[in-house]
Amino acid sequence: MTVGAGRATPPTARGRVTRERIIRGAAALIYERGIAGTSLDDVCRATSTSKSQLYHYFADKSALVCAVIAWQQDAVLNAQQPYLGEFSTLAELRAWRDNLVHANSSWATFEGCPIGSLASEVASDDTAAGQASVSAFEAWHRALSAGMQRIIDGGELAAGCNADSLALALLAALQGGLLLSKTTKSGRPLEVSLDHALAAIDAQRVAA
Questions:
Q1: Tens digit of pLDDT for each residue in 70-104?
Q2: What is the pTM of this model?
Q3: 167 near 141, Cβ under 8 Å?
Q4: Cis peptide leading into 11, omega within 30 of 0?
Q5: Is 29 a member of any domain?
Q6: Is residue 49 domain-shared with residue 118, that is, in the same domain?
Q7: 205, pLDDT greater than 70
Q8: How many whole angstroms separate alpha carbon 41 and alpha carbon 64?
Q9: 6 pairs with which residues across the strands?
Q10: Quick one: which of 22, 35, 57, 106 is 20 to 30 A from 70 by CA?
């Protein structure tokens, strides 16, 4: 996959709608088939877009993949709101966990994490797409870390706890659980992995 420069955001509302339609269509195809299994011709057919029109918005496939990763980042993080952006107690952290488990259980085929699926394809690439996947996980980590810091500042967890480390452990448990849930077609791996991560955090609770 070659790395190409992206295009500037379209100045017109019509252009932005068209670009969004292409990204959404590409995201759906890539989620189902993977990056390697999705060609630009596939995207053109699925979105009723000409090749020249697609190249008007995206320099090449790499630029389109980067846009898809950014779109999935927003979609995945927004789907966790308001829990992800507002939790400041251990009870609210548990509510974030419950929301994730419920959402995953409602997916009949347990398709896994869109960001994780994309990252597994581009993680070894020193490309813009690889960096975009890193940025997506970093944004998720920052949101979790901010919440963990709020819990620490609120006095529920020991002042010596490291919010970044706790957040990283949560994110790792989440990704591992989602991958196993996708593999086994069962929600139990996600439940167990998150519950163990939360138990480790709860062990740092300040004694009443």
A1: 999 999 999 999 999 999 999 999 999 999 998 88
A2: 0.90
A3: yes
A4: no
A5: yes
A6: no
A7: yes
A8: 13
A9: 58
A10: 106
